[in-house]
Amino acid sequence: MAEITKEQVERTADLIRLTISEEETELLTSQLNEFMKYADQLNELDTENVKPTTHGNDVKDVMRKDEPTKWITQEEALKNAPDQDSGQVRVPSILE
């Protein structure tokens, strides 16, 4: 991979409106180039027989089974409502 230049770091900092000093520019350039060297090492690995993964761990479905269930009736749901109208719970208005 191509080496990251000081000008690229300065341009990127300018694009994200980040003010960095000359020393910080030098440090970031050096650190980013070290990172790129590490990424190049990873590209050298033989991954021919490695299956692609989306998760590091096995993902299992933890949801309950979708089975029919007997629900309460509308009358049972409304029996404890302090105020109701036309089969619906009535609440105070929040808009003026």
Automatic annotation (TrEMBL):
Region annotation (Disordered) ranges: 75-96
UniProt KW keywords: ATP-binding, Ligase, Nucleotide-binding, Protein biosynthesis
InterPro entries, sorted: Asp/Glu-ADT_sf_sub_c, GatC
UniProt keyword annotation of Ligase present: yes
SUPFAM superfamilies reported in the protein's UniProt record: Glu-tRNAGln amidotransferase C subunit (SSF141000)
Transmembrane segments: none
EC number: 6.3.5.-
Pfam families: GatC
Domain of life: Bacteria
Substrates-to-products reaction catalysed: L-aspartyl-tRNA(Asn) + L-glutamine + ATP + H2O = L-asparaginyl-tRNA(Asn) + L-glutamate + ADP + phosphate + 2 H(+); L-glutamyl-tRNA(Gln) + L-glutamine + ATP + H2O = L-glutaminyl-tRNA(Gln) + L-glutamate + ADP + phosphate + H(+)
GO molecular function: asparaginyl-tRNA synthase (glutamine-hydrolyzing) activity; glutaminyl-tRNA synthase (glutamine-hydrolyzing) activity
Function field: Allows the formation of correctly charged Asn-tRNA(Asn) or Gln-tRNA(Gln) through the transamidation of misacylated Asp-tRNA(Asn) or Glu-tRNA(Gln) in organisms which lack either or both of asparaginyl-tRNA or glutaminyl-tRNA synthetases. The reaction takes place in the presence of glutamine and ATP through an activated phospho-Asp-tRNA(Asn) or phospho-Glu-tRNA(Gln).
Cited NCBIfam families: gatC (TIGR00135)
The family this protein is said to belong to: Belongs to the GatC family.
Subunit organization: Heterotrimer of A, B and C subunits.
Protein name, per record: Aspartyl/glutamyl-tRNA(Asn/Gln) amidotransferase subunit C
Taxonomic source organism: Virgibacillus alimentarius
Origin organism lineage: Bacteria, Bacillati, Bacillota, Bacilli, Bacillales
Gene it is expressed from: gatC
